[in-house]
User: Fold this.
Amino acid sequence: MAVHAHPDDESSKGAATMARYVDEGVDVLVVTCTGGERGSILNPALQGRADIEENMPAIRRDEMDRAREILGVRQHWLGFVDSGLPEGDPLPPLPEGCFALVPLDEAVERLVREIRSFRPHVMTTYDENGGYPHPDHIRTHEVSVAAFDAAADPDRFPESGEPWQTLKLYYDIGFSIERITTIHEALLSRGLESPYAEWKDRAARWGDRRRPTITTRVNVADWFERRDDALRAHATQVDPQGGFFKVPLDIQREIWPTEDFELARSLVDSTVPEDDLFAGVRDPVQA
Assistant:
């Protein structure tokens, strides 16, 4: 089970890993916490179109359907409303009723229902910084960690299904500073333009956040193209000529062929570093 804040997050974070496991016969469920209703139109070719702006919730659902089919995953909506990304100094208040302001237990209970119904052995989500400081990403972390524990406790939300103990919890490390720097320098050494100079500066402005520790590197080089196709399915949210797609796939496969994760919680014997999210899980489950 991969828990994400908005439609498109599943395609920009861990998508190749999910596609690989689907192809290996693993049942994969994406849980999307919000509908992405307040997302901006980031594709220059679609900006300024009133028909899109007026129908953003329905359009983002359609985009999610296409991405889901490309990746081969199942997908459920948790049903909360996008908080938007506040901008300005000082920051404006978050909109009333948005995901980041919903009482924690209300959101945790909905995710507990999903966990107890789907019964995953492994969960992925974001770290305490949200991967980047968006209020919905930070809330997704809080809800995921709380639900990981609550789903196994028969005294928590007893009306929300039979208790289920997920065995491992990971934080998805989408764009670590190590990955960005390595690919950036590899492109420059080949005389190619790098899209990551601005990304490095942006990451530096995020302050003294805890840097994630990569414990698990899943080799997914053969699934990069499918990842990119799924991301392009979110046509309002990505520029097809933008930085996500500027690094040639052959260079990505050579320089950084993995998607990376931080093992946050494990109830099985597993030794880091790992190359598989199911390390320590496969044999006990089969037994």
